[in-house]
Structure formats: C-alpha cells, structure tokens
Amino acid sequence: SVxxxxxxxxxxxxxxxxxxxxxxxxxxxxxHDAADLTQETFAKALDHLKSFRGESSAYTWLFxxxxxxxxxxxxxxxRRRTVQAGQLAKDPEGEGVLERRASATEMPEM
Length: 110
What we know:
The protein is mainly alpha-helical. The chain is 68% helix and 0% strand. Helix 1 packs across helix 2 (31-47) and helix 1 (12-28) packs parallel to helix 3. It starts with 11 loop residues before the first helix and ends in a 5-residue tail after the last helix.
C-alpha cells in the first residue's frame, strides 16, 4: 500500500524521524549523538519489524526503541568515564593521585 501523506507532503515516518530526533537531542544535549541514535532507531526497527506486535502505535514502538538506545548509550559513556577516572586516580604504587598531590604541596616542618 502507498504510505499516507500529510498536509505538508510528508510520510508518517518522516514526521516521526523529526520527533524522535528532537527527543533524543533533548536527552543527549548533542546534535551528533541525536542524529546517530535516530539512525540506529530506524535501523533497529527495520531489523526487528517482524517482532512488532501492534499492541501500541508504530510511533510509540519507535520512540521506545529510541529511548532504550539513548539510555544504553548513556550508561556506556558513564561507565567509560568511571573506568577512566578510576585509572587516573591510581598510580603504579597504588597511591591516589590526589593523595600524592596533597602530600607534595604540604609545607615542610621547621
């Protein structure tokens, strides 16, 4: 069947893409990440189209995929930052960087 065209000459998918992108941009605060996640959303939906049960609207299903992808990406970023911060906080001798800095700046006793 032919996709329905709205009064602006757009298909529902084009309208949904804009809405999903805008929601992801608000969530991520980053245009590049929002664009990547929007593309991933539609690719994942296409890959799993057979699993769409029709219990919700197609837009609701797409939106949920987008939110799940953004949440997963956010967790991955936070995890990487935590690991990197943990690696920076320890030197090979096991002394914390902040502890070492504090002891290096202490005034010698007279």
